[in-house]
Write a structure and sequence with these properties.
5 helices, about 0% strand, DNA-binding, disulfide bond, iron-sulfur, single chain, cytoplasm, 4FE4S_WBL
Length: about 110
């Protein structure tokens, strides 16, 4: 819990003084809204707490707005990648001894 003397990452966010409507466009596909998104991301690009902001938005599943320089679609993509199970190498399957032939060739070189 934050005490009155502790600083929170939001206290250092440079968007605190910006128009909140800039960070919450009503859509993301229209050209004017893409410009609004670009402008919001530009502010995020100069912010000292962008990583904290993005981490928070990913942790709580923030569905709207520009957070940490990302759109809702970009955050969904990041969450899907983070939630994906670890990828493991598949076992090598030998067909007509091709794996052994390849290993012998590599060892002989």
């Amino acid at each position: 819990m934050k005490t009155s003397n502790e600083e929170h990452w939001t206290d250092r966010a440079i968007c605190r003084g910006a128009d909140p409507d800039l960070f919450f466009p009503i859509g993301y596909s229209a050209e004017v809204l893409q410009e609004q998104q670009r402008a919001a991301k530009e502010i995020c690009g100069h912010c000292p707490v962008t990583a904290d902001c993005l981490s928070w938005a990913l942790r709580v599943g923030e569905p709207d707005g520009i957070w940490g320089g990302t759109t809702p679609d970009e955050r969904r993509h990041l969450r899907r990648r983070a939630d994906a199970p670890a990828r493991h190498r598949l076992p090598v399957i030998s067909v007509r001894n091709d794996v052994e032939d390849h290993e012998q060739a590599v060892n002989a070189a």
